Task: structure prediction
Amino acid sequence: MKGKQNATGWAFLLPAIILICAFSLYPMISALITSFQTGTGVNIKFAGLSNYIRCFKDDVFIQSLKNCAFYLIIQVPVMLIIALVLASILNNPKLKFRGFFRTAIFLPCATSLVAYAIIFRSLFATDGFINMIALKLGIINHAYNFLSNPTSAKIIIIIALIWRWTGYNMVFYLAGLQNIEYSVYEAAKIDGASAFQTFFKITVPLLKPTILMTAIMSTNGTLQLFDESMNLTKGGPGNASITMSHYIYNMSFKGVPNFGYTSAMSFIILIMVAILAFVQMKVGDERD
Amino acid sequence: MKKRIVSVLVVAAMTVGMLSGCGSSEKKSSEKDENTLTVWAWDQSFNIYAMKEAEKVYQKDHPDFKLNIVETGWDDMQTQLGTIVGAGNYDKLPDICLMQDFAYQKYVTTYPDLYQDITDCGVDWSEFAEGKLAASTVDGKHYGVPFDNGAEIACYRTDILKQAGYTIDDLTDIDWNRFIEIGKDVYDKTGYSLLSVQADSSDLIYQMLQSAGFGTWTEDGKPDLAGNENIKQCIEIYEEMKDANVLNVVNSWDEYVATFTSGKTAGVINGCWILASVQTAEDQSGKWALTDMPALPGVSSATNYSNQGGSTWAITQNCKNTELAEDFLASTFAGSTELYDTILPKSGAIATWLPASESDVYNEPQEFFGGQAIYAQIADFASKTPSVDLGVYYTEANKALATAIANVSGGSSIDSELKTAQETVEFNMNQQ
Result:
């Protein structure tokens, strides 16, 4: 009887397992093997760890790593804080048009990554909407080319990312907030807690698992950032805003391809994501 | 309950739609009969149009012949070629594919199995311009039938020049110093920049270099960027033009095209294929005139002629019906003046097949350019262009130079940036 039950369980799991093995596990192992080989195009040979050593001698890769770190350090905390604040505001049952605001803030997530990146590019173009408004209002005297300055190009990517992903994270927090009994807030109110106190003493601690999850997801997403760099700034000016994934793409498909080297770079991203996720989980661990 | 039924039906319909969608596309490729060739090309108004006309020409003698032309952007094509060949999945390749000349050497050397050697396909190779043929020739073997030529042109808005007191003759056979002088004057008097360029691109620098026969490689194929006085001179000219508002630097290709189609800049300097974009602004018809590009000042080998781009048709290893593909290319792009006579006036595709350039169509006045016979002029430019080897690592060198320019614009010194560019390209080439 038990054996039969087990068999039924495995039968249900089988389709998913086959698909994961074929489309996820096999390519990963294959990429790992490729990462130990080097050469151009199809003329590749085994070369041990040389690709991994090469990564750290590659100035552009180091630059892309720094760029990703910059996005990560600035964008993720800002976005998560905004999402948390918005979620607790929109969780107030007395607020009118809650449904409308929730939808409006979540809506950017429904847009395609490429489409929104291109729209941001034209918004911030020299003759774009932002410059036009600023000129009309007299804030600036002549149009500013946002995408030609290394710092402003990076800041525009961050603004775009915040616009695109805040609503997405807010939905997780809203879901998390549903699990907090309203009576807890009522009790706090009776005890005379201010809005700030309820936020920091009740909402944040009780949402900790959700915050941890969104932090890990955002970190992961930022390290693998591609569409914004590719479509919004094209990595420019120079390589000032290029991300690691974008650089990997350029190395694989733009120039003379060395898939061994690009696979090695991908695995370095994987290792970094794993380490950061591990650190975040340790930091967020409640059992200490 | 009703809702549930409706949603189930919707999902069912979508699933069926998706499955049938996949099914039908698969059918198409397996149904490939012996008289159909699949072609990849990237520009509806240019090379795809030319291919369609070639199909019509060939169909006259071969009524069963058919082409299946798939529009594939150049960026997508690179990604697809790389993955298809990397995975060894050759049957996903088209039969014929268009290839940028600057990438030919790279694809033939890194993917030796990608293109067929068509040296003996019956094309008389001596009927093509030698400089053009060099792109698709590796170790004396021909890997493609040359298509269009990227002869450098300069064209200007005569109405704006007139406002500033100049004519097209003032901009003909000049050097960059004179160009900047006129450009400053035009900007002061009319507020128009004379030229625009896309940021993060070093194409203009390459065009300037080639006009004097300079390249970015030493004779033994090493990068020649650090301390290269010629490149330094070009970047200095670039910067001077930018600072004087003679050159308008924009961020993307669509913005670049918009600068002249929407009438914000008074001139264009680029490969002659850009004319297809220039001529989309029909309201500016008759206001343009065409001439040669400025030369590098103080250089003994300087000319007013250069090249940017150009492309070549290749037959891939997947082509099962090589004879048909070879015969098709040989009797159209390498054998039909009729074809070139049709496509020239409509798309501006300047032939590299020499017998076509004797055609009368070249001497026809073009209304858009105030009745100038521009194609005869361009063919003349093409014959005077110095030939330069762009090398296998062209894309890397181009990108490294573009980065150097961006950083110089941000305040770095040219010498140190060229040194960095040199190191970047050397690093890229050192693949062990």
